[in-house]
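[Discussion] Sanity-checking designs against the backbone

I'm trying to build intuition for which residues belong where. Below is a structure token string of 583 positions. I'd appreciate it if someone posts a full sequence so I can compare it with mine line by line.
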């Protein structure tokens, strides 16, 4: 006999049908199949659940981590190039997973869009339910208030009727911010009050503002841009597309959105630690003094610091890095100047030991390339190699290895100004050539190998003496005692960023913070006051409340309202009050 046919079976109702064990001859119940539409509804409910939204938010945070571990093409294209040079085997693998374009990668975008859909699907039904709850009447007063939290009784004040006491309670609750509704059941008047719907409002504002941030960031990424430019002291940048060293536009960006203005780097001030012996040479402050001018305005002096970007003409200008740009002049055998420029050298360590490249495509019998090493404060190691012991200009030295041949630029293929492909070049000095590298201090000139001409390391100090031949008989002691503080120009690397949705992101972020604070600190409460006639004919007022979630101040709130409404309870009456149920 099956359990459902046994009327005495305690665990089965009489009409229960067990689909697993059916009596012989009985037809078992088959569960309906979900079907295609059913599976779609199931998937939608899973996607729009709060659990899924939180999981996607966590995944989005984890997915953003690689963007801080490896350089990104959008913000540091030179760093990506250097990463490929330093990690020739690992870099192509990472590039296959779009690790150098994390924030525009397919997998990051998929998480981003799923989170966007999940939040919207979660917010809409909750908003609808919240509006319905706001329009609904507070629930009826429970029959047994003694089962609820903070239950307490007070005697009906002398000379006051039960109806008047309930009216008074309703008025005070309304003044305290409660929505109230009065009921009467079996001759017992009561008032039901609730408040704290602002908590759910804050929750919805939080999630809606989060969607707003996602939309604003996506919109800003589509219509904004970021570009990088290295500017040497005394040089000027014009905000046009051709003036950027690297440029990363959004999907919907057009160059007509660029506001024309000029940005000139007047000088770069660097302050280093000189007192703390354990931190000698550590940077303390970098300040770029710039001049900004639009088409019709007057030049305006501004400053840019590492953590203090400059906002001008709709763009944020960030100071990313800095270094030295030795001014190098190359003359051919006939004494004609074939190259002269301030060449940015890329720092390699904290003391600004730097590497740079000079390319001379014309004016020589063959194209000329030089790889230079610059030491702001030159020091010789025990191995005989040079290094810099301090980042400021105390004893600047420039060494150059000279190459001759094809620079690889004749076919129009773009090449980096910071690298030199030596595979098609012949090395003339340094390395294993047997010819010493050219070594220069500011203001010195040396001969190029094979009588090709001369190279000069210009001294840009205002009023500096003309360059001298490094091979000439000079007073070494006087040279060592020179002040080189302004002998080499500095450069600054700027990131110029335009985001049309910055204020929207700020506004949504403020709403996120405000909504979160409201949802955390506004309690959701219901409170009831009921006039009850005891068997002895005495009328008492019962007070109780119920919280949605944890509310440690609930019982004190009930007691405080009862004391305010009917006065403090006598000690004897408090002792006679029924104990609160543990349910």
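Best answer:
Here's mine. Compare freely.
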């Amino acid at each position: 006999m099956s359990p459902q046919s046994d009327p005495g079976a305690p665990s089965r109702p009489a009409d229960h049908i067990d689909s697993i064990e059916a009596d012989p001859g009985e037809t078992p119940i088959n569960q309906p199949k979900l079907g295609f539409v059913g599976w779609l509804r199931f998937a939608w409910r899973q996607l729009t659940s709060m659990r899924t939204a939180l999981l996607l938010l966590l995944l989005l945070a984890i997915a953003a981590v690689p963007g801080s571990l490896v350089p990104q093409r959008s913000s540091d294209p030179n760093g990506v190039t250097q990463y490929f040079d330093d990690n020739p085997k690992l870099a192509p693998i990472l590039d296959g997973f779009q690790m150098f374009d994390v924030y525009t990668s397919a997998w990051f975008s998929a998480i981003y869009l799923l989170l966007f859909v999940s939040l919207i699907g979660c917010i809409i039904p909750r908003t609808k339910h919240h509006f319905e709850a706001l329009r609904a009447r507070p629930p009826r007063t429970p029959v047994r208030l003694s089962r609820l939290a903070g239950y307490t009784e007070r005697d009906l004040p002398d000379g006051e009727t039960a109806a008047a006491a309930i009216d008074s309670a309703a008025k005070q609750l309304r003044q305290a911010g409660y929505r109230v509704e009065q009921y009467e059941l079996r001759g017992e008047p009561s008032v039901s009050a609730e408040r704290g719907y602002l908590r759910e409002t804050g929750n919805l504002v939080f999630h809606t503002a989060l969607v707003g941030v996602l939309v604003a960031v996506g919109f800003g990424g589509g219509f904004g841009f970021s570009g990088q430019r290295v500017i040497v002291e005394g040089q000027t940048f014009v905000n046009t597309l051709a003036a950027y060293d690297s440029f990363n536009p959004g999907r919907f960006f057009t160059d007509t959105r660029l506001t024309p203005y000029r940005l000139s780097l007047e000088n770069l001030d660097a302050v280093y630690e000189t007192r703390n012996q354990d931190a000698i040479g550590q940077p303390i402050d970098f300040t770029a003094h710039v001049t900004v001018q639009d088409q019709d305005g007057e030049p305006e002096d501004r400053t840019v610091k590492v953590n203090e970007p400059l906002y001008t003409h709709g763009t944020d200008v960030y100071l990313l890095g800095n270094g030295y740009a030795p001014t190098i002049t190359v003359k051919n055998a006939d004494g004609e100047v074939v190259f002269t420029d301030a060449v940015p050298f890329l720092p390699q360590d904290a003391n600004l030991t730097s590497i740079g490249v000079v390319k001379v495509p014309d004016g020589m019998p063959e194209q000329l390339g030089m790889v230079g090493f610059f030491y702001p404060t030159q020091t010789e190691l025990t191995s005989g190699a040079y290094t810099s012991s301090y980042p400021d200009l105390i004893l600047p030295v420039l060494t150059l290895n000279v190459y001759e041949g094809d620079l690889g630029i004749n076919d129009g293929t773009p090449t980096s100004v910071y690298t030199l492909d030596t595979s098609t070049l012949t090395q003339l000095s340094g390395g294993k050539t047997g010819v010493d590298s050219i070594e220069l201090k500011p203001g010195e000139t040396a001969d190029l190998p094979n009588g090709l001409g001369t190279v000069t390391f210009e001294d840009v100090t205002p009023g500096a003496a003309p360059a001298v031949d490094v091979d000439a008989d000079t007073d070494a002691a006087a040279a060592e005692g020179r002040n080189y503080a302004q002998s080499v120009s500095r450069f600054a690397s700027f990131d110029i960023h335009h985001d049309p949705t910055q204020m929207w992101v700020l506004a949504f972020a403020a709403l996120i913070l405000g909504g979160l604070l409201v949802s955390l600190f506004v309690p959701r409460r219901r409170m009831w006051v009921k006039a009850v006639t005891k068997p002895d004919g005495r009328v008492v007022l019962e007070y109780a409340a119920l919280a949605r979630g944890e509310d440690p101040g609930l019982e004190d709130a009930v007691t405080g309202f009862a004391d305010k409404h009917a006065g403090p309870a006598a000690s004897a009456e408090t002792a006679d009050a029924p104990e609160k149920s543990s349910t």
